Amino acid sequence: MPRLMYPLVASLMLLTGQSTTSAKEKITWVLAQEPPITYVRDDAYTGYGVKMLRLIQAELPDYDHAMHLGGNYQRATQDVKNGPLKCAVGVMKTPERMDIMSFSTVPVFHFFDIQIVTRKETFESWGRPEKISLNLLLKNKDLILMLSEGRKYTPGLQAILDRHQGAPHIRTTANAQFSETMLRMLQHNRFTYMFAYPEEVSYLTRQMDNMDNIVTIPITESQLFGHSWAVCSKTPQGKDAIAAISRALKKVRQTEEYREAYEAWIGGNLRTLYREKYQTEFLKIGE
User: Fold this and answer.
1) Are residues 93 and 46 in the same domain?
2) Same domain for 91 and 73
3) For 52-73, how does the pLDDT look when each residue is reduced to its tens digit (9 = 90+)?
4) What domain count does the chain have?
5) What's the pTM value of the predicted model, to 2 decimals?
6) Where are the alpha helices (DSSP H) in the chain?
7) How many alpha carbons fall within 13 Å on the CB side of residue 152?
8) Cβ atoms of 101 and 200 closer than 8 Å
9) 219: which DSSP letter?
10) Which of 74, 171, 187, 263 has the fewest CB atoms found within 10 Å of its own CB?
């Protein structure tokens, strides 16, 4: 091509919207509507999971990023499966999911497992325990446990509950999900304790008045922490993306900003323990 033609060709490419550099691949991040992890409020994506995701995205400059609300986790993972380059965060590993999606080599979230929820006065009367035994609590028939009908618990907790099936101090509410109604009932001393995740409690109490007297306590018979992962479509593009995401995760999870995104949603009685296990356990996974 004659040298004089180069400026003309470049001008035409600009006019037609073409670029002399190749376009970036775009990752569509499929988010579940699961407050306070990832959700939409006032037409904006928010939640501690979104804060963490933005830190990850900042380490992936070779990709463009878009977010898409996919409903619950089941629908979100189906969207990821359909590809061609979709990713999600906060997905639990199952054999079925590992067959159809590419998982990160390190987890995204390090979170407390389900805990005992009670009033602060009760927590104080129990001696402010770092952990508490469900078996021990159930031996005291003056302490009323409220369960959510249809809610699934870990096998270890369910086995304990099954041994006490029909006990008068174990009651069930028709609310299938943890709710403001249950918190109000607890606050008014209609029962002694229930189960929930710490971040669930924080999310709801922040929207309610006079709810600063609620505490969550880890359960001795339950695992202390759970982990969930980033996933991408099981395509060549998805495998490349999840490798880059894993590298980004190894870097950003070392930062206080990343750790504090979740930490802001747990009670003060849990933070020392969380930081200790974050350093000694979470940061070792995948290294």
Assistant:
1) yes
2) yes
3) 999 999 999 999 999 999 877 7
4) 2
5) 0.86
6) 5-15, 48-58, 73-82, 95-100, 120-125, 134-139, 155-163, 180-187, 198-205, 236-252, 256-263, 268-280
7) 2
8) no
9) B
10) 74
Q: 54 and 26 in one domain?
A: yes
**Token reading at 284:** 């070792």
Q: How many CA atoms lie within 13 A of 278 on its CB side?
A: 21
The tokens for 178 are 């943890």
Q: Are 103 and 242 in contact (CB under 8 A)?
A: yes
Q: Which of 106, 98, 118 is nearest to 187 (CA)?
A: 118
Domain membership flag for residue 222: no
pLDDT digits (tens, 9 = 90+) for 261-270: 999 999 999 9
H or E element at residue 232: strand 225-233
Residues 167 and 254 in one domain: no
Tokens of 96: 């079925």
Q: What HEC string does 267-280 produce?
A: CHHHHHHHHHHHHH
Q: Cβ atoms within 10 A of the Cβ of 199, count?
A: 21
